[in-house]
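Late entry, evening session. Most of the bench is empty. Finally got around to the prediction I had been postponing all week. Sequence below, unchanged from the version circulated by S.P.
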Amino acid sequence: MLDESLLMLLVQQVRAEEPGTLAIVLCGSYARGAAGPHSDVDLEVMLSGTPRAYYQTLLVERTGGRLLHISISFQPWTEWQREQHAPADWSFSMPVRQPIRILWTDPAIDQQDIEASYTQPAGGAEAEDFLEYAGKVKNAYLVGDELCLRLAAQKMAFLCTSLLAPEI
């Protein structure tokens, strides 16, 4: 479980460092309710102008000495809105539903403009993705991990078909 006081501290920090902040949302496994003990925290910050930094990484020590990795991305509001409806090119040619949790919005922003989740259309498969899974197949085979081998081979086969399909 993610400590709410940590989230609010991060919101305060971001707002102090980026005065043009319009909204801050939590994404990824914590927003989906699927976070595990090794999950990282993904925050997206929407700004009224150009960000001073586009990405920030923090490591926070938790109880027991475990480190929590926090990723914060910054982008203009209009760019963030456009990306939420752009094809998900990392999703193996499948549409993606990405839930988010609103942590803070500027009073000038109508929260209706920030949907609780976005469904991105499928993106095209890339040769890079196919090669990634070819490497996973080889590695799983070499260490004798049959389950990983089967799953990686399935993804690789799926990508192969979409790579060979003619563009229309």
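Two things to note before I forget:
Residues 127-164 form one domain.
The chain has five helices and seven strands.
Will write this up properly tomorrow.
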